[in-house]
Amino acid sequence: MTIAHKIIRDYAKDAGIEFPVHFHMLRHSCGFSLGKAGMNLEDIQLYLGHQMIQNTVQYRKSNPENFKKFFS
Question: What angle do CA 30, 33, 34 make, to 5 degrees?
Fold first, then answer.
């Protein structure tokens, strides 16, 4: 286990998170945050370094708020 993994694990434990937390979750949380903010999928893809857009789409699917603007 790397030092970075230990730091993330310890911070999660101190925060009271009761499930295993790993370093890669930070990357996912960044993607979900950008998706929730309504960022363009192609921009998120480039930022995260995904080669295929299919790996990025999950970050927009999770937020139903993105679809409300279709009917306003």
Answer: 85
CA 5 to chain CA mean position, Å:
17
pLDDT tens for 29-65 read 899 899 888 888 999 999 999 999 998 988 877 666 6
For the chain, the straight-line distance linking the first and the last C-alpha, in angstroms and rounded, comes to 49
Amino acid at 1: M
List CB contacts of 4: < 8 A, sequence separation 6 or more.
23
Q: pTM (2 decimals)? A: 0.68
Whole-angstrom distance, CA of residue 61 vs CA of residue 23: 23
Place of tokens 């679809």: 67
- 8 A C-beta contact, residue 60 and residue 66: yes
Rounded CA-CA distance 63/2 in Å is 33
